[in-house]
Write a structure and sequence with these properties.
Elements: H1 5-17, H2 21-48, E1 79-83, E2 93-98, E3 112-113, E4 125-127, E5 135-137, E6 142-143, E7 148-151, E8 161-166, E9 185-186, E10 191-192, E11 199-208, E12 212-219, E13 225-232, E14 244-245, E15 256-262, E16 265-275, E17 288-295, E18 304-305
Antiparallel strand pairs: 1-2, 2-3, 4-5, 6-18, 7-17, 8-11, 9-10, 10-17, 11-16, 12-15, 12-17, 13-14, 13-16
Length: about 325
């Protein structure tokens, strides 16, 4: 679509100068949601706690009496270990947590100091959190990137990703599709944008413990879609690399790999598809991504099964 190139360049300049407000707001909600939810739960708990009274609680129960235990007492085998958040000095602790809805009370194992926050395992290994707290080789049939994560099985949307959609309303075009129902969709071998005239973002937040990179393999056939890749920090500011990429169309059935360096700390990565409808049709070329890999993360506590149709008969595989 050579005739569309000047208009596309104009639209790219418009979107590149506009702050990504929607992605910023939703990403901050995603990052802060756990803390907000915990605060709300604690507040609700305090409100619902009855005040002590000299008349005693309803039903004649003794003041200070314990409630009846409904689950068996926890044994050592009922606990698993998790790491605390990192302290300002880079130290964290391994604490015991009971398996949900299996037991109550009992004596948990005491907390012990865990590996420091900057610790990572090599590719082909995982950190044995439950026992030795050392790096062990992955078993045959599994692999690990060490301090990284790879997404290439798109049977369902990974919980680490967020899909956002908004309407296009610019000088040369305006969305006619229902953008409220538009989203990136997993389709087994790849994840795909909806292929319409909305702007739809796929967002991933990575808290890197060291400098790393993001690598992805993508495909889209025609220039009737704008592909925008943006990397910012948790304050919605562009990182020191000034990363703002506009990958070109690959052609029908062709795939291209792009690798972008990431800084240590929080990196919010968004892949945005913007459909351009110059005619009556709302259909545009969908953007497909078949692999996303992030490197520079902390340890992985479990190895990943080899993709369908592949197998590794040795331990310590890296892919």
């Amino acid at each position: 679509m050579a005739s569309c190139s000047p208009i596309k360049r104009y639209i790219v300049s418009v979107f590149s100068s506009r702050p990504a407000v929607m992605i910023c707001v939703f990403t901050l909600l995603l990052l802060c949601g756990t803390h907000l939810g915990s605060a709300a739960a604690n507040k609700k708990k305090k409100i619902e706690t009855p005040a002590s009274s000299t008349d005693g609680p309803p039903g004649g129960a003794a003041v200070g009496g314990s409630s009846k235990q409904t689950l068996p007492t926890c044994q050592l085998s009922d606990f698993h270990f998790e790491y605390t958040e990192c302290h300002s000095d880079g130290v964290r602790w391994r604490v015991s947590v009971p398996n949900p809805d299996t037991c109550e009370n009992g004596g948990p194992p005491p907390p012990i100091r865990a590996v420091d926050c900057g610790f990572t395992c090599e590719a082909g290994q995982y950190l044995d959190v439950q026992n030795s707290q050392t790096c062990l080789n992955c078993a045959a049939g599994k692999y690990s990137l060490g301090g990284g994560q790879r997404f290439e099985n798109w049977n369902k949307m990974p919980q680490e990703f967020l899909s956002l959609s908004e309407k296009v309303d610019e000088m040369y075009m305006e969305s006619r599709s229902n953008c409220n129902e538009s989203a990136w969709v997993p389709r087994n071998g790849f994840i795909s944008s909806p292929g319409n005239d909305c702007q739809v973002s796929l967002v991933y937040s990575a808290n890197l413990k060291k400098a790393g990179y993001v690598k992805f393999i993508y495909s889209y056939a025609e220039e009737d879609t704008i592909f925008h890749v943006r990397i910012s920090n948790d304050q919605c500011q562009e990182t020191g690399h000034g990363i703002d990429r506009w990958p070109d169309a690959t052609g029908e059935g062709q795939w291209k790999e792009i690798k972008i360096d990431l800084s240590m700390g929080m990196n919010v990565i968004s892949w945005k598809a913007i459909g351009m409808n110059f005619e009556d049709s709302t259909k545009t070329s969908p953007i497909r991504i078949k692999l996303i890999e992030i490197n520079g993360l902390s340890y992985t506590s479990q190895c990943t099964d080899c993709p369908s149709g592949t197998y590794s008969d040795t331990s310590g595989s890296t892919e």
